[in-house]
TrEMBL record:
It comes from Streptomyces yunnanensis. It comes from the Bacteria. This is Uncharacterized protein.
């Protein structure tokens, strides 16, 4: 396994890491990601009535990485005040 990590590092490929979302509508969701993004955007489709053809509406939810967590699983907390 360490050989695979070394090969990824030499090739410039970032390793996949596990993260968990806390709070909000995606509480408890686990995911795999690379690059440790500081913010994740979760979208959920909304049902629409009388919308023009092709219109789609999604609710957006923001999750911010807990910078105190340095090892897997990374932790992202719901930010209910972000637009």
């Amino acid at each position: 396994m360490d050989d695979m990590k070394a090969m990824r590092d030499m090739a410039g490929v970032e390793p996949w890491e596990t993260a968990v979302l806390f709070g909000g509508p995606a509480d408890g969701v686990r995911l795999r990601l690379t690059g440790r993004p500081s913010v994740l955007q979760v979208s959920h489709p909304c049902r629409v009535e009388n919308a023009p053809d092709g219109m789609q509406i999604a609710a957006l939810h923001i999750y911010r990485r807990d910078l105190k967590v340095k090892s897997e699983p990374l932790r992202y907390g719901f930010d209910g005040v972000s637009p």
